Amino acid sequence: MTDPLIALRPWQAPELTSWRRLPMNAVDRRPGALGLDGDWRFHLLPAPDAPLPADAWTTSAVPGVWTVQGTDDLPGYLNVRMPFPQFPPHTPDADPTGVYEREIDVPAEWAGRRIVLQVGAAESVLLVHVDGEPVGVSKDSHLAAEFDLSGTVRPGRPSTLRLTVVKWSDASHIEDQDQWWHGGITRSVLLYATDPLHLADVGVRAGRDGRLRVDCQVRDARGALPAGWYVTGDLDGRPLTQDTEFDRANAEDERVSGFLGEARIETVVPDVRTWNAETPELYTLTVRLHRADGTVADTATQRVGFRDVEIVGRDLLVNGERVYIRGVNRHDFHPLTGRTVSREDMRADLALLKRFGFNAIRTAHYPGDPALYDLADELGLYVVDEADIEAHDHAHEIADDPRYLAAFVDRVARMVLRDKNHPCVIVWSLGNESDYGANHDAAAGWVRRHDPSRPVQYEGAAKRGWADPGVASDIACPMYAPLEECLAHALSGTQTKPLIQCEYSHAMGNSNGTLADHWAAIEATPGLQGGFIWEFWDHGILQRVSDGRPAGPAGTGLYGGGTTAPGYRWAYGGDFGEADHDGAFIADGVVFPDRTPKPVLFEHREIAAPVRIESYRHEGIVLGNHQHFRGLEWLAATWELALADGRTLTAPAHLPALRPGETAAVQLPFALPDDGGEAWLTLRVTTAEDQPWAPRGTEVCSPRTPLRPAGPPKPTRPGGEPVRLDGDGLLVHPLLTAAPTLSLWRAPTDNDELGGTAPRWRELGLDALVRKLSSVERDGARVTVVAEYAAAAGVVLHRQVFTPFAGGLRIDESAELPPEFSDVARVGSVFETVAGLDLLEWFGQGPWESYPDRAAGAPVGHHASPVDALFTPYLRPQESGGRHGVRRFTLSAPDATGLAVELDAPRQVSVTRFRAEDLTAVTHHDQLVPRAGCVVHLDAAHRGLGTASCGPDTFAAYLVPTGVHRWSWTLRAL
Ligand code: IPT
């Protein structure tokens, strides 16, 4: 006989969102539950209705996705386009279907109890059977599905539980998020038991005025509620009782026939400690459901944060404060499991975000694991909770398709029902990139009735016009809007909603240019309140190069510091043989796949600095507290003074007692030496005590200010070795293996490629400059070499004047860029050194990578790094490793021999093992072969990074102008 669940073909029935699934609720049943995670019997069918062979079982780890567990159904990456051509709600016949089976031993003492199966998440359709009997169906891949097994399993006896997971379904069309496609059970499976009389849901409202309201939904699995039940509770040990006023009103209400099973607890907590992202104060609430005889039938425990969220005018307020939203979009991702993320991993994600100054996440583009919200409550992060709806490829059809109406409302409602008690959740999001239609308004209507305490946002609605996004959005939340448009809106006088970009500053490859400019504008412009960087992860899956397979969970320990062990690589789109894919667009996060921070995080940390140097005047340094809720007492600090003579002086700093928004002048602890040299003051700010997200002593920010600009360069004494040139007029120098030549090009970043700049560079021929010597003139010891660099677009004239001095050589260069050479990558010199010079020490910005439009996070000081550690291993090799504002540097061998370079002005410098063409010749970091010597670039001008892979390019101020560029430097042997 055909299985009725299969006969129903629920994978092609969008109207059917579930069958016999229990309503979603906010009661945490994890404590005391029977975990069913571990190895399950597994078989992968080619289609849901294919016959299941009796043998041929393998095993599969639950939770996990079979796409990284050794099956032939591998991960695939497509952003917008669906991986199959069928229109919604249709799916391909070939539809991988995982059948998971295991025995469950239901404890004998559960006899008479209500027994519930919870499947944490399965993508995309879940069919449940027990002992061959159909139990239920669920869709909505990132929320749990619960089924009542009370009548089906027999306590004390084993039963066979089968979970069938169908990969492609009508639901896939609304789960078309920009991430890998997988199949499997991605969150924990568990079984729990309650008394038949139970808390079906508990809803908590807790405001900053200390008001607490707890609404309990009470049900009895046997049907009618028994007489005499009641609830009690306690909040951090303070007893709470049922609100009799509410009972009376309920009983007198003619609309209510009999007593529906509602009870309320209401109280006011005096002197309440409010919750916010800076001081996430939590209370523990326990709610007990009693039988008439006073015995406890059910208990629910949860943490409560007292806080308000409201929109007043065009401001989003948390506890009355207009907080900046320093957010990031976070997906569920892990380089080994694909999608399954442990609680420890989630904690590490969020702790890292806190350490780098973030205070918000958007759960792009579906609700996270329940543990994520517990952690955000605890660590202090605002959450925009997003429903699992992205109809991207067929957005327009689906947003108004009544067949999908139930799914939209169901997904949004289930998220709200589950997460409503978390103080961290400050906004509900109706989903992502699904156009805008009646289905959205229906879902918005449900939320507004059920939870009027939080705003709703939906980017697609805001597309209608930021001033009036309609019923589906209380926030103007565009994505990748150019800053000037945001500013124009905020200054237009027509703005009615807070403007908080749901996605901005696309972090693909070497990116996030102009982030500091965005924040300068946000902090200066009422109506602009922040945004969410796209995105947290580079979704590179650890892949064995030999057979192209995902390493899977066995790959633990095969990566670190952003790169992989030899023989492995970070796979991106196309690496699993997908016929159609979107390449490295999946690698667009602020962390590497192993959560190693990319340089942008240091930039962000500084932009978000809680304490800042407002100004430096003769009377001293003015410090300001830029937080919203707390003082500076949780911070410790040290002054650091970097001097041009090579010294760095330090002194303890005493942070003044400042309330949010306050400033105070403090005395400068140093006297400046009277050599007239450049001097930079940095305040190193660290955590004074252990924080839940960072140990004591963790750097929080390092605001800085110049105290004295650079003086004129020291005169050089004439003399030195005569200049040696080869027949092409190229410098011959014992420390260089390649003479300094003109460089106008860089290995294109993802922004350069996808934003169209790099294709234009190739048209101009900048990647294939041909040098031709024009003239060599000698004037005493001084030699002038003029060369032409020919590209398809024309010719650039390059002049080098070599002047030897005692102990070194001075090189004055100029390059004249005709108008055809507009917007090039760089103008500067490139040369290569002998092998063995493996340590770079520099005076300039650092220690991390910085570029002209991403240099706010790198203080000026004396820095040192092994050359190999300077390079950032972006997944698709590209321009990397630059340091901005370098005044001078040495490159040395362990025996202290080497070379020293002094620049005429702070310049962009990079020292790596790779020529630009080495980087462009490969597609993955594992294919790079480091050169023995160093490739050194000194740039008179270097183009900003921008974010044009998805969003605005850099600003005009960061482009390389045409015309004449001049730069000078000296080269000495150490
Ligand atoms: C936007 C998506 O919302 C996000 O999921 C991701 O794809 C991002 O872009 C780019 O990485 S949608 C895009 C069409 C602007």
Would you kindly provide a brief summary of this structure?
It is built from 14 helices and 55 strands. It folds into six domains: 4-194, Galactose-binding domain-like (Jelly Rolls, Sandwich), CATH 2.60.120.260; 208-304, Immunoglobulins (Immunoglobulin-like, Sandwich); 309-539 and 587-601, Glycosidases (TIM Barrel); 540-586, no CATH class; 610-702, Immunoglobulin-like, CATH 2.60.40; 736-766 and 822-965, Beta-galactosidase, Chain A, domain 5. It is mainly β.
Percent helix range: 10-25%
Our Rg estimate from Cα atoms comes to: 31 Å
Q: Kindly identify the CATH topology of the largest domain.
A: TIM Barrel
CATH top level of the largest domain is: Alpha Beta
**Poorly predicted parts:** none
Q: What average pLDDT do the residues reach? A: 96
Strand content: 35-45%
Distance between the termini: 86 Å
Q: What is the assigned CATH homologous superfamily of the largest domain?
A: Glycosidases
The figure for the number of domains is: 6
What does the main sheet amount to?
12 strands, antiparallel
How would you describe the shape?
globular
List its salient traits.
974 residues; mainly beta; Jelly Rolls; Immunoglobulin-like; TIM Barrel; 6 domains; 12-stranded antiparallel sheet; 7-stranded antiparallel sheet; 12% helix; 36% strand; globular; binds 1-methylethyl 1-thio-beta-D-galactopyranoside; B-gal_small/dom_5
In terms of topology, how is this protein built?
Elements lengths: L3 H4 L10 E2 L14 E2 L2 E8 L12 E5 L1 E2 L10 E3 L18 E9 L8 E10 L1 E6 L2 E6 L6 E4 L9 E9 L12 E3 L2 E11 L2 E10 L4 E10 L9 E6 L2 E4 L2 H9 L9 E7 L14 E8 L5 E9 L4 E4 L2 E4 L2 E2 L2 E5 L13 H13 L4 E3 L7 H10 L2 E5 L8 H5 L5 H15 L5 E5 L8 H13 L5 E2 L1 H4 L20 H9 L7 E6 L10 H10 L3 E6 L7 E4 L14 E2 L2 E2 L3 E4 L27 H9 L3 E7 L2 E6 L9 E9 L4 E6 L9 E4 L12 E9 L11 E3 L2 E5 L27 E8 L6 H5 L2 H8 L5 E10 L2 E10 L2 E12 L2 E10 L8 E8 L5 E7 L14 E7 L15 E11 L5 E15 L3 H5 L14 E8 L20 E11 L1
Parallel strand pairs: 25-26, 25-31, 26-27, 27-28, 28-29, 30-31
Antiparallel strand pairs: 1-10, 2-14, 3-4, 3-7, 5-14, 6-13, 7-12, 8-11, 8-14, 9-10, 9-12, 15-16, 16-19, 17-18, 17-20, 20-21, 22-23, 23-24, 32-35, 33-34, 36-37, 37-40, 38-39, 38-41, 41-42, 41-43, 44-49, 45-46, 46-47, 47-48, 48-55, 49-54, 50-51, 50-52, 52-53, 53-54, 53-55
The structure holds 1-methylethyl 1-thio-beta-D-galactopyranoside.
